[in-house]
Amino acid sequence: MNAATPTDAPVRVSFRDVSVEFPTAQGRMRVLDGVSLDIRQGEFVSIIGPSGCGKTTLMNILGGFVQPTGGQVLLDGRPVRGPGPDRGVIFQEYGVFPWLTVRQNIAFGLKLAGNKVPRAEHDAVIERYMGLMGLKDFADHFPKHLSGGMRQRLAIARAYAVRPQFLLMDEPFGALDAQTRSAMQDLLLDVLQTEGKTVMLITHSVEEAIYLSSRIVVVTARPARIRTVIDVPFGYPRAEDVHEDPRFGEMRAQIRALVMEEYAAQARQAVRLSD
Length: 275
Prior knowledge:
The chain has 275 residues and is an alpha/beta fold. The protein folds into 2 domains: 11-86 and 165-274, Rossmann fold (3-Layer(aba) Sandwich), CATH 3.40.50; 95-163, no CATH class. The chain has helices at residues 55-63, 102-108, 119-132, 148-161, 178-195, 206-212, 246-274, and strands at residues 11-24, 27-40, 44-48, 70-75, 78-79, 87-90, 166-170, 198-202, 215-219, 226-231. It has a 6-stranded mixed β-sheet with strand order 6-7-8-3-9-10, with helices on both faces. It has a 4-stranded antiparallel β-sheet with strand order 2-1-4-5, with helices on one face. The protein is globular.
């Protein structure tokens, strides 16, 4: 990651007037409505908004798991048709295989057709990512023997081992206690500094979004539309003392106010639907 994402960096991802509707017992429900957004090479973009507003659907379209009802998402100028090895996905639920050891979990993706590496590189890749994530001493342990933070380290290591260009993260630290969450944020920044990726993060934490991101996208209550996009003024590498910067506090107050307005709008929607 550079000290700041250049404004002339190439656009890698482009959401163009994207809408999504799902069928329900009460009729079709619109989840996304006319979302347009570009993500440049090397950016760390966080999406924040009320629970249930459609943030995860936005990420799932880029991941190739959901097709838009209207509009399109382009990856390097080509429509996203499905999942691919260029996009690594990390979920809140850790996403590791409980029947495989740490080493076997990381190795799993390297065996798939789209991610295969030469045998000579195979073990080196596994060792590298166990080292980066502090998991070498637990190489032969099963996930049930790991703490929540370590299981999330394993999920990140497995996603990174297949060398994706994009990292898609859906509340990856949401289940962790505050201290572990903070440590995981710092670890993620360290690894990104080493590896360099383009990242989309879904989060409910305003502080997390500011601390990690180069840009923050605030979305509305469902159906999700982009309310505003905020540039984060802090460069990389980033350290804990950024929390003490007056601009951090100002941004936190600004974004919290926007998100709370959308929660209020969501509550009004619920009342209307119940009438």
